[in-house]
Amino acid sequence: MCGRYAASRKPEDLALEFEAVPAAGQPPLDADYNVAPTKDVYVVRHAKERDAEGLPTGGGHRELRAVRWGLVPSWAKDVSVGNRMLNARVESLTEKPAFRKAAASRRCLVPADGWYEWAKRLDSPTKQPYYITPEDGSVLAFAGLWEVWGRGEDRLYTCTVVTAPATGALTEIHDRMPLVLPPDRWAEWLDPAKEDVAELAGPTPPELVERLELRPVSTAVNNVRSNGPELTARADSVGLPADQPALF
């Protein structure tokens, strides 16, 4: 699963990276090194363009928008359902009612610096957190879905992160991972006209996974109230799981 990640980039940098237009009227989000469910996060989505009367023009553009993490389907009775919808398994995107319509036409990218997972230790019952991030410091793009709940001023935009079976060295830490999409797949994932969800949601390329650093970090990240770049710093001493790959 993906239940915690880091997102520190400024909106103007994300807009440039993803060739997106920031949504109007939204204050910038602060850098967050411990993003947790129900927090506001940035997503990149396809936004339909409308004329002065609010009618669709047939055009569209990439939009950078702050939304709440935890998908709330339009038919939900209240927003609390989003607390259980932070992840969508890639295997059932087209089957589950909560995700089916969004998977068909409301796909998004969730920018991130990296994400956290927890593995068993040899010397303690406390699990060891790892920060998983590109070795070159580049941005990650998680596959996501977005929805709108409510009407008028009560409209709430929300999202979920798509997860897939872990691959490569990541399997030593957790059996799931966010579905990370390389730049050459961003356009098709965002295109609402693309209908073959299974093809669009193919596995993260092995070469992308090989470029990820699996960095042991302090257990300070366990507390959702903790924040700051120090959470992503390498821990001095950890008890590694048996048969852990020699990446540390």
UniProtKB/TrEMBL annotation:
What Pfam families does its record include? SRAP (PF02586)
Looking at the record, which segments are called Disordered?
Answer: 225-248
Question: What top-tier enzyme class does this entry carry?
Answer: hydrolase
Alphabetically sorted, this entry's keywords are: Covalent protein-DNA linkage, DNA damage, DNA-binding, Hydrolase, Lyase, Protease
What are its E.C. numbers? 3.4.-.-
One example of the protein's molecular function in GO is: single-stranded DNA binding
Q: Which GO terms describe its biological process?
A: protein-DNA covalent cross-linking repair; proteolysis
Listed SUPFAM superfamilies: BB1717-like
Is the Protease keyword given for this protein?
yes
Family recorded in the similarity comment:
Belongs to the SOS response-associated peptidase family.
Name of protein: Abasic site processing protein
